[in-house]
Amino acid sequence: MHNQINTFKIAVRKFAPFEAAMQDFWTKYCKFSGCKLELEMVVMDLHELYENTITKKGLANGDFDIAHISTDWVLEGYSNQDFEVLNPYINKNKPQDFPKGWSKSLLTLQRFGWEVVGLPFHDGPECFIYRKDLFESETEKANYQSTYGKALEVPKTWEDFYQIAQFFNRPADNLYGSIFACYPDGHNTVFDFCLQLWTRGGSLVDANGLIQINNQAAIDGLNFYRTIVNDRTAVHPKSNEFESVAAGIAFSQGEAAMMINWFGFATMCEVDENSKVKGKIDVELLPSVEGKNSASLNVYWLYTIAKGSKNKEIAYDFLRFALAEEQDKQLTLEGGIGCRISTWNDEEINQIIPYYHKLAQLHEVANMLPQKKNWAAIAAIIDEMVLNAINTDALTEQLIEKAQNRINEIDK
């Protein structure tokens, strides 16, 4: 499947805003540079993208020139020499305002020693997204007060989150209390599990850097999660079919009062012309348990150049163009999340997306997933554990112990 002579191939994460932006950037780049190559976008969902770039060695073999790579997979790809090391290109011709133009939290996961193998493409930590029009409605406030004897406020605890989800759950109006993304793809439920663990004061790794999930915070978190996800009086009935994009779209259609999801799905509600909740939402830090701190998760997307690409000079030149302030801002207006500090603080952007500047504070509480070569395999075990919790009656403690034993075999 090697490149035909006159095509330039980009492996793109399936998401309409990404597809539109990449097409647009390429068209502009060709006008600007005189490049005559035809763009071929290979659009894939998470599973396919990982499989075709990393598992099947598509980057090493030159099946693509550039790929969108999640920071979850970057260590594995680096260890297998799938990516072109970018330092020689950067040293010769830096991207605009590099590295000062980005938050440090977006430049760390793709750096190994001095070697840089990716540049920030799309960001947006996990956050709490809610319908402020519902929370601010006098009728809703009065009803909540008379039902529960307390004020309706943005939930700071998981207990309040659950109660508010039940309060706003109105299937007859096609409105549900909350949405989760439980589609089994080794990502969504794993992220949800981590967030439940962290907001209970737990950690994913022990003092030796080994994955250790057999602890009370994990048990409490998984118990809470399996209960709420299966509670039709609180959660969108299609949650088990949704991955994060589908959950985000349902939220933008006004189908839920609250959602824990990536920041990008909040912005989508403001910039997508099909959104029914434009101007009606806001974002906050995630709830936690009483006395523990909130947490977020920082997984971001990179542009990488394929080790096997025959067009490396063009690929880097294009990336410099795509990373410039103007394009980063445009990606945001398309519905992605620009990574530059200039975009976060941009006045026009904050007029359209009034909570955009909150990205900085979300990054302050954002945790990273452990950097492990076989993280994808560990994540698959956690994914299976969470799905078994949701779909069977097995005891939480037993599911966690079993998963921990399997993790111990591969996490050395």
Task: Please sum up the structure shown.
This protein has helices spanning 16-33, 46-55, 74-79, 87-92, 132-135, 138-148, 158-168, 188-198, 216-229, 244-252, 263-271, 312-323, 325-334, 341-344, 347-352, 359-364, 375-391, 396-410; strands at 7-13, 38-44, 66-70, 111-112, 115-116, 119-122, 126-131, 176-179, 256-262, 281-284, 296-297, 301-305, 366-367. It has 412 residues and is of the alpha/beta class.
Could you characterize the architecture of this molecule?
With 412 residues, this protein is an alpha/beta fold. It has 18 helices and 13 strands. Helix 1 packs antiparallel against helix 13 and helix 10 packs parallel to helix 11.
**Radius of gyration, Cα only, in angstroms?**
22 Å
**Strands side by side in the biggest sheet:** 2-1-3-12-6
- Rounded to the nearest angstrom, the distance between the terminal CA atoms is 36 Å
Return residue spans where pLDDT drops below 50 for at least 5 consecutive residues: none
The average pLDDT score comes to 95
Tally of helical runs: 18
Helix-residue proportion: 40-55%
Q: Which structural category fits the helices and strands? A: alpha/beta
Report the biggest beta sheet as strand number plus sense, adding barrel if it closes. Answer: 5 strands, mixed
User: How many beta-strand runs?
Assistant: 13
| Residue share in β-strands | 5-15%
Described by the principal axes of the CA atoms, the overall outline is globular
Topology:
Layout: E1 7-13, H1 16-33, E2 38-44, H2 46-55, E3 66-70, H3 74-79, H4 87-92, E4 111-112, E5 115-116, E6 119-122, E7 126-131, H5 132-135, H6 138-148, H7 158-168, E8 176-179, H8 188-198, H9 216-229, H10 244-252, E9 256-262, H11 263-271, E10 281-284, E11 296-297, E12 301-305, H12 312-323, H13 325-334, H14 341-344, H15 347-352, H16 359-364, E13 366-367, H17 375-391, H18 396-410
